[in-house]
Amino acid sequence: MLIGVPKEIKNNEYRVGLVPASVRELVHHGHQILMEAGAGVGIGVSDMDYIKAGANIAANSEEVFKSSEMIVKVKEPQLHECKLLQADQVLFTYLHLASDPKQAKALLDSKCVAIAYETVTSPKGGLPLLMPSSEVAGRMSIQVGAHCLEKQKGGSGVLLGGVPGVKPGKISIIGGGVVGANAARIGIGMGANVTILDRSIHRLGELDKLFGTHLRTLYSTFETIEQCVIDSDLIIGAVLVPGATAPKLVSEAMVKKMRKGSVLIDVAIDQGGCFETSRPTTFAEPTYIEHGIVHYCVTNMPGGVARTSTFALNNATLPFVLDIATKGYKNALLEDSYLMNGLNVYHGHITYEAVARDLGYPYINPHSLLKDEYFS
Q: Parallel, antiparallel, or unpaired: how do β-strands 113-116 and 343-346 relate?
């Protein structure tokens, strides 16, 4: 299969779909790779590095999209890129369609086969292609939050770890999944007072065993969220409903009650955000202040540490890329129900139930759709 990797064009996005080691592995298995010139510059990888790994170099993204059977990216295609997609062409990347109706419409119009990293599952029920970015975003959220708490950034001037004789800052993390656990790890390491809220007693128990007395766990209710929001210096929004729009768990009324200069980091912003006052931002202008509270709502947080994020993501995506390329997308999807869960758009149909519900489209079962085509 001919696999194309365009350069990412989202604001301040420096990651790339494939690293040279992944290219070499795919070439070893008989596949061809077409990289857009300069695609890896943002992570310190040159075109020559890709050529040595066996890739060919295209002058521009138009050539990549025109020639390739499968497009491997990191972030959701921008509308310009959606227009370059072709019918039956495979797109493998993060999509986050539930909060992006324009992108969804453009993908439907293209008649492409769009498989979303964030909804591919594992036998244990996890999200293996979302996990690397979630780990990065969780860890980043604390260092970003610490920076935003500085006075020159509009923050309250609190040092999260405190100093001898001065109490540490308070961090509350809403959501105890991968993002939340990684945020807690860094927050605890900095010496902050850390609380995680979650609605799963089982998960709270796991976190309690993992972190012991260094972490406070609370069952998530409207009241406990409100209490923590009002009392904390830094709030991390780390909730996830796979493929669907994030629930708004922190109301504007709660935000108004917070101490001025406190900070909200909305890691769920690429799914619409979990704070009522959230709106998407970019690395060019990452923060804004509303009701005296600093909001950080960058939709591609892991892009801030692009090299680490790219290599971590490739470790997870490469087996799936290889499987799709070797078997063809229909066989790969039909033989792997976990990969099938990643199929969001197929030949003009929405094939992921949460996306269809949130965007108001009819849901088409992907298994029956592909089987009907395969055996027709």
A: antiparallel
**Backbone dihedral angles phi then psi of residue 289, each to the nearest 5 degrees:** -115, 125
- Whole domain around residue 364: which residue ranges? 2-119+306-375
How far is C-alpha 40 from the geometric centre of its chain's CA atoms? 19
Q: How far apart are CA 13 and CA 305, in angstroms?
A: 10
Residue written as tokens 């969220």?
A: 225
pLDDT digits (tens, 9 = 90+) for 232-288: 999 999 998 887 888 999 999 999 999 999 999 999 998 899 999 999 999 999 999
Encode pLDDT of 100-123 as tens digits.
Answer: 999 999 999 999 999 999 999 999
| DSSP H/E element including 188 | helix 178-189
Q: Give the other-Cβ count within 10 Å of 3's Cβ.
A: 28
Separation between Cα atoms, residue 79 and residue 210, nearest integer Å = 43
Q: 159 vs 168, 189, 259, CA distance in Å?
A: 7, 13, 15
Query: What gap in Å lies between CA 216 and CA 230, rounded to an integer?
Result: 16
Give me the active site residues, please.
96, 270
Query: What would the two tokens of residue 366 be?
Result: 């992907």
Query: What does the pLDDT read at residue 376?
Result: 52
Instruction: State residue 370's pLDDT score.
Output: 86
206: phi then psi, degrees, rounded to nearest 5: -60, -45
3-class DSSP assignment, residue 363: strand
**Do 63 and 188 sit in the same domain of this protein?**
no
Residue 374: predicted pLDDT: 57
Asked whether residue 78 falls in the same domain as residue 169, the answer is no
The tokens describing 244, both together, are 């669907």
